[in-house]
Amino acid sequence: MHLSWNDIAAWDRIRRLQLINSITGYKPANLIGTRSSAGIDNLAIFSSVVHLGSNPALLGMITRPDTVPRHTLSNIRDTGYYTINHVSHDIMREAHWTSADWAADQSEFEVLGIASEELDLFSAPFVRDAPVRMAMSLVEELPIKANGTILLIGKLEFVRFPDAALDADGSLNYEQLQSVAISGLDSYHSATRLSKFPYARTQNWKGLQ
Ligand SMILES: Cc1cc2nc3c(=O)[nH]c(=O)nc-3n(C[C@H](O)[C@H](O)[C@H](O)COP(=O)(O)O)c2cc1C
Questions:
Q1: What tens digit of pLDDT does each residue of 23-34 get?
Q2: CATH code for the part of the protein at 24-186
Q3: Closest CA relative to residue 132, chosen from 36, 28, 203
Q4: Measured from the CB, is residue 182 less than 6 Å from ligand 1?
Q5: Strand order in 81-86's β-sheet?
Q6: In whole angstroms, what is the distance from residue 92 CA to residue 21 CA?
Q7: In degrees rounded to 5, what are phi and psi of residue 80?
């Protein structure tokens, strides 16, 4: 199939957004935990978390335009803190339902029965059963002029995961962690590692091994 943007633009809205939301391939599944200034905990699934740099450890995520109330965005703006929690097989159903439009005074943790946890006196809530949990502080908010979305840039304050998930080279082992991947806005996948390659340096090239 070959589709020009004009072809796609002529589709109905839902079909178009299904195609474009799934076009980038597999995305990470994360739950963003925040606390409002009134003390209400909030949880929302985001598939747009992205690595921005390792020193300092900066992660970005894209939030939809603030033309309607966005609890995650307003809580992060108000407090400056949030948590990023990987979604595992065990919590993916509940995680998906955090995307519904729950009222500001309803905590998704309570409505959906997702266990929360406080760690190290950090002021935003963590998902107790998430295999990887990160404490983040907001460092920058970048409006994307092209469509009104916003890039939130956060600095990693601390991270927790099971000891067994740390490989000897320092990377996380996803066979151990069982974090899931997302495609589109509605599909959840498990992944198996096909291979792990050495760092690619031209001077080490001897043809494909
Ligand atoms: C699979 C999936 C991925 C999503 N990823 C994002 C995202 O990256 N950014 C975003 O703003 N909303 C995303 N959403 C929508 C939010 O989860 C949804 O708007 C939610 O209601 C926000 O809750 P809040 O108002 O409590 O922040 C996603 C929804 C689903 C189902």
A1: 999 999 999 999
A2: 2.30.110.10
A3: 28
A4: yes
A5: 41-46, 30-35, 81-86, 133-143, 150-160, 57-63, 50-54
A6: 19
A7: 85, 0
Q: Judge whether 83 and 59 are in contact, CB under 8 Å.
A: no
Q: Is the CB of 71 under 6 A from ligand 1?
A: yes
Determine the distance separating the centroid of ligand 1 and the alpha carbon of 121, expressed in angstroms: 26
User: Quick one: average pLDDT of 28-49?
Assistant: 98
Ligand 1 center from residue 202 Cα (angstroms): 41
The torsion angles phi and psi of 35, rounded to 5 degrees, stand at -130, 135
Domain ranges of the chain: 24-186
| Residue 208 clears pLDDT 90, i.e. is over it | no
Q: Which amino acid is at 191?
A: A
Please write the tens of the pLDDT for every residue from 135-158: 999 999 999 999 999 999 999 999
Nearest CA to ligand 1 atom 10: 63
**77 Cβ below 6 A of ligand 1:** no
Mapping DSSP to helix (H, G, I), strand (E, B) and coil, where does residue 207 land?
Answer: coil
For 34, list phi and psi in degrees, rounded to 5. -140, 165
**Over residues 174-203, mean pLDDT:** 94
pTM for the structure as a whole: 0.97
